Amino acid sequence: MDYNTQIVVIGGGASGMAAAAAAAEAGAEVVVVEANAAVGGNGLFPRGIFGVDSVIQRRKLVFADADEIFKSCMEYSHWKIDGRLIRALIDKSGDTISWLAGKGVDFTDVVHHIPNQTPEVFHITDAAENVGMAVIKALRAYCAEKGVTILTGTRGKKLLLDEHGAVRGVLCEDKQGGSVTVTAEKAIVCTGGFAGNPELVAKFYPTYNPAVVSVGGGMRHQGDGVLMATEAGADIEGNFAMEMAAPKLKGNYAGLNLLIGKPYHIWVNRFGRRFADEGIVYNFAQAANACMRQPDGAVWVLFDQSGFDRTLADGRDIIELIHIAPDAEERLAQTIGKAQEDGVLKVSGSLEELAKFIGCEAAELEESVSEYNACCDQHWDRLFAKQGRYLTRLDQPPYYALRAGTDMLITHGGIRVNEQFEALDSQFATVPNLYVAGVDFGGADADVYNVTMSGHGFGFAVNSGRIAGEHAAQAVTAE
Ligand SMILES: Cc1cc2nc3c(=O)[nH]c(=O)nc-3n(C[C@H](O)[C@H](O)[C@H](O)COP(=O)(O)OP(=O)(O)OC[C@H]3O[C@@H](n4cnc5c(N)ncnc54)[C@H](O)[C@@H]3O)c2cc1C
Question: For residue 437, which of 5, 114, 183, 464 is within the disulfide window of CB 3.0 to 4.6 Å?
């Protein structure tokens, strides 16, 4: 079946659902094509969403200064990113919290995501339903109410162009291989990046070595949006950031995630050598950089019985509360048994045994631990300057070693856009009728995903979609 509409949104994830809702709200007729059997994409996973000067912050007396946040974001990336885009996304973000709340998202708090983070920008919902699911559910319901047509199982393959090179819709394929044509006045590409496309990953992240990424999280999209948009004349912006996290466990060992994320443990590589300030664990992107540098990207997280006991006695921190399954502690004993069987965890009274598990020389591991213990005694990490508060000796057996790796979440970067999220060509002119939102556009992250802008991956996706949807709707309803 073919469709004719005012706006077609290609990809029904975080940015696409926001674009569709915003466009429909502004009075436009909208069709969403979604490759999967259901909408949501990686937008189903986020635990927090970035927002500046939201009503939740104001109520909590968190005064988030947009200028300061803007400056820190630009400095983080050494101004490799686009100031106008960042300004537009930050400025919209507080209002978007109210916009989502108005559609049924029950924000319960705004919290810090790294220790002592000021101001707090990470907006959360009740832990039982993460913010991503709540947002997608609310936007899906709103789109239904507004009469948006959502075609699931329908993959956009090629943008339709008229004789002047203006976009006029999209040619899609349904699950049975049949073709579906959606002609439209405007198209908004929101296909969620290219983490599942090895050729694009190799092209845009030349220093990234997939062989050392041991854990896979999220949905790996194919880069269809970036490919379709470039084919239609849009340009690649040129800066990319891979969102990665470490140390992470391969497999489902929920309770162990409580233990792996502590700054007072130590990390060693396959030579048994310590390599980083483990306090960087709270900045998952920096931690991923440090872990990925290690031979084979393999790292082991070590702690002793006192570290184990302290973790459980302290209880969950604010981030673990929202990120780790509620019954993780209850299942811990069972999880530990399984992890040992699976070769993910070794528990032993001797460091020599742990060295065997790691595959390193016992002397090397013993040297690393004694060097670390000496730093603890001096209250000074002379190697990596880890904070004194995190320096606790490793000397109370049994010892634990968890085999961990790096998780690749999502790509950020792609098509060059202006601050209305219209696609631009190599001459910085707009490609007529084409918008790009979510992680398919470039210019918001460069090199390393900026964890200090907590929740901005999801936040920038929703805000870029919303801005694109509003702008496209304004154009079609004015025409
Ligand atoms: C495990 C995990 C946890 C995360 N947690 C957080 C967090 O706490 N906070 C945060 O800020 N960010 C988080 N993120 C990142 C956040 O989820 C993404 O930045 C955001 O979802 C990107 O939105 P998007 O619209 O670009 O892509 P998506 O939300 O993935 O949507 C893309 C959609 O396009 C569809 N699609 C792809 N190709 C086609 C095609 N050819 N035709 C039609 N449809 C197509 C896909 O099926 C998908 O539904 C997390 C990501 C992961 C993987």
Answer: 464
Give the H/E segment covering residue 352: helix 351-358
Query: What tens digit of pLDDT does each residue of 224-280 get?
Result: 999 999 999 999 999 999 999 999 888 888 788 889 989 999 999 999 999 999 999
63 burial (CB, 10 Å; 0-12 / 13-18 / 19+) is exposed
Beta carbons of 306 and 229 less than 8 angstroms apart: no
Which of 122, 130, 173, 191 best tests ligand 1's pocket when mutated (most atoms within 8 Å of CB)? 191
SS3 content of the chain, % helix, strand, coil (to 5): 40, 20, 40
Q: How many CA atoms lie within 13 A of 447 on its CB side?
A: 11
User: Does the pLDDT value for residue 127 go beyond 70?
Assistant: no
Residue 214 has a pLDDT of: 65
In order of their start, the domains of the chain are 3-240+413-478 (3.50.50.60), 243-407 (3.90.700.10)
Secondary structure in 3-state letters for 410-464? EEECCECECCCCEEECCCCCEEEEEEECHHHECCCCCEECCCCCCCHHHHHHHHH
Over residues 185-238, the pLDDT tens digits come to 999 999 999 999 999 999 999 888 777 776 667 899 999 999 999 999 999 999
Residue ranges of the alpha helices (H) in 38-187?
Answer: 55-59, 66-76, 83-102, 131-145
Mutate to test the pocket of ligand 1, among 249, 410, 421, 441 (most ligand atoms within 8 A of CB): 410
CA distances from 375 to 63, 279, 310, 355, 394 (A): 39, 14, 20, 21, 11
Instruction: Quote the CA–CA distance of 258 and 304 in Å, as a whole number.
Output: 15
Q: What is the pLDDT of residue 215?
A: 64
Residues 6+ apart with CB under 8 A from 253: 335, 338, 339, 344, 345
CA–centroid distance, residue 14 to ligand 1 (Å): 6
Q: Ligand 1, atom 21: nearest CA belongs to which residue? A: 43
